User: Which sequence fits this backbone?
């Protein structure tokens, strides 16, 4: 029996650009858009892979340009943490959010080496809270830098900010189960499925926080789209649940 993919899939966690993290990676926006077409994705939240400020600046401009033309793309800003201390950057974030050119920001503290609770992020998080925008937060095993606890702390401090804990809190049951339990308390915390390959973790999230706070994510190009969507289809028996996770919840959070 062939796998039946859900219709109009929305992906809350995709990347493009050039990364140097021990594994050199280049994945163009055109290549990503071809993937969207191939699998009939209807929407995707996109952020840059890069770490260098000069490349990030260029890739953010490219993403904004594509986002204006391609209604399927929902840009998330990614920049060096120190840039959020600049008032012109904060003003641009607010303006771009209000004009629906971006829909939030992506933060990966494992790469940036600045936790989301640092004062560096105070101003931008306040703007995101004002605009009821999205923070997609990488959660990893480096707990003192990218632990899921920081995301929950931010959600409590900024109740109108929509916090997505990537990798369901850390991409390992030891982290995910704790993150899932903690997320239950905060209605503005969502869990994305990217790189979570254990069906039981996804089922635990469904049982604990409900289908309305789980978002499909693939982490392309680090993750394989088919690997990740197959995991979701395998974990959830209900078509209604699969529809919520792969489409409805994204549409609720990311509004154009």
Assistant:
């Amino acid at each position: 029996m062939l796998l039946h993919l859900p219709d109009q899939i929305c992906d809350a966690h995709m990347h493009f650009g050039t990364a140097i993290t021990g594994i050199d990676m280049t994945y163009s926006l055109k290549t990503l858009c071809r993937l969207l077409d191939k699998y009939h994705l209807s929407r995707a939240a996109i952020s840059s892979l890069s770490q260098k400020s000069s490349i990030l600046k260029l890739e953010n401009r490219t993403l904004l340009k594509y986002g204006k033309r391609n209604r399927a793309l929902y840009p998330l800003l990614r920049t060096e943490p120190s840039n959020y201390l600049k008032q012109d950057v904060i003003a641009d974030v607010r303006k771009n959010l209000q004009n629906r050119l971006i829909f939030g920001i992506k933060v990966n503290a494992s790469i940036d080496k600045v936790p989301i609770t640092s004062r560096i992020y105070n101003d931008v998080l306040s703007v995101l809270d004002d605009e009821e925008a999205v923070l997609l937060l990488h959660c990893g095993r480096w707990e003192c830098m990218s632990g899921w606890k920081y995301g929950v702390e931010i959600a409590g401090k900024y109740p109108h900010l929509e916090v997505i804990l990537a990798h369901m809190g850390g991409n390992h049951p030891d982290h995910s189960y704790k993150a899932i339990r903690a997320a239950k308390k905060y209605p503005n915390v969502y869990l994305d499925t990217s790189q979570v390959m254990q069906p039981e973790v996804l089922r635990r999230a469904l049982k604990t926080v409900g289908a309305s706070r789980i978002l499909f994510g693939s982490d392309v190009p680090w993750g394989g789209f088919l690997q990740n969507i197959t995991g979701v289809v395998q974990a959830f028996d209900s078509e209604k649940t699969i529809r919520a996770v792969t489409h409805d919840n994204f549409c609720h959070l990311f509004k154009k």
User: Anything to note?
Assistant: The chain has a mean pLDDT of 93.
